[in-house]
Amino acid sequence: MPKNLFLDTPENFSFRRTIYSHGWCELLPFEIDRTNWRLNYVFTDVNLTEPVAGEISEADGKIKIEIAGGKTNQKAEEKILRDARHILRLDDDLREFYKFTRTEKRLTWIHQTNAGRLLRSPTVFEDLVKTICTTNCSWALTKKMTANLVEKLGEAAQDGKRTFPTAERMASVSAEFYRDEIRAGYRSAYFAELAEKVASGQINPESWLASDLPTKELKKEMKRIKGVGDYAAENLLKLVGRYDGLALDSWLRSQFYKKHNGEQFCADTQIEEHYAKFGDWRGLAIWCDMTEKWFA
DNA sequence: GCGTCCAGGTCTACC
DNA sequence: GGTAGACCTGGACGC
Question: Which residue is nearest to nucleotide B9 (CA to C1')?
Fold first, then answer.
């Protein structure tokens, strides 16, 4: 029997703007239904005998999580609610960001539509692996690598949908597996090394969420992981709630050239100067600015 | 069908 | 610290 769990939403929250805030909604175990505006995810927890597929939607001003099958208990349900809060950034306070966007006429749509919450995975580890999958390849390949990870290493729920693999599961296979089965190319050795270090406790990506380190130092820590450079680190920083890096990649640059530079190339320093007025929120400002038309 | 280019970059060696 | 070259994959494109 399906079971429904509910979460209250904060002020200034848009479900649609959150689940379709960036490409993460297309990377398994996330699946988005943009016709009915539903987001699917496969939840897992030590208190569950098996993973459960959940459909997240908006109902009567609340977030509804419909759990399909699976035997849950109170602790597991609490974990699912925690994960959903985390995924949807329900605890993020964007009021300061909106103070900035109110000052710019062309960005007033951001606070008017409650945009700015960037969808993330339940764990930083999952976001870290997915971010490495976005580097130096097409979006189609990113989706393929992520799907391979889920399909070949994830744990199956009752309905056959699979979880994102844990670090322990990822550490149980070799670099050759990542090369041959996941089609991760040169990233294969990085995944094997990362999974082993996280599984053994040498690295704890989850600690980045509440780190006291200044952003510059936290970014250095992230960049010590092979496969994580400037773009990847700044993307991860956004997902742990720090927006003072632009996370410039080729897509973001090309969008900036089109929108603000007459389709002409310019140096990254010019892009940085353009968003400097947004202070510690500049990374979120550029992302919202470049994705304005996504809901047009 | 084949070759080339390039995409939501990063690493290493070298200067 | 800055830069050049190598690194995987697979879709798009030109021939």
Answer: A136
Long-range contacts: A140-143, Cβ < 8 Å, 24+? Answer: A141/A183, A142/A23, A142/A27, A143/A26, A143/A27
Asked whether residue A19 is domain-assigned, the answer is: yes
What is the Cα–Cα distance from A211 to A109, expressed in whole angstroms? 32
Contacts made by residues A230-235, CB under 8 angstroms, sequence distance 24+: A231/A135, A232/A131, A232/A132, A232/A134, A232/A135, A234/A283, A235/A131, A235/A134
Neighbours of A285 (CB within 10 A): 24
Whether A137 sits with its Cβ under 7 A from any strand B atom: the answer reads: yes
Q: Is residue A245 part of a domain?
A: no
Q: Is the peptide bond before A165 cis (omega within 30 degrees of 0)?
A: no
What does DSSP say about strands A52-59 and A31-33: parallel, antiparallel, or unpaired?
unpaired
**Nucleotide nearest A137 (Cα, C1'):** B7
- Total domains in chain A come to 3
* Distance of A212 CA from C11 C1′ (whole Å): 43
Provide the residue range defining the domain that includes A257.
250-295
C-alpha dihedral, A208 to A209 to A210 to A211, nearest 10°: 20
Does residue A43 belong to any structural domain of this protein? yes
> How many Cα atoms within 13 Å fall on the side-chain side of residue A29?
31
pTM of the predicted structure, to 2 decimals: 0.96
pLDDT in tens, A141-187: 899 999 999 999 999 999 999 999 999 999 999 998 998 889 899 99
Q: Note the strand B nucleotides within 7 A of protein beta carbons.
A: 6-12
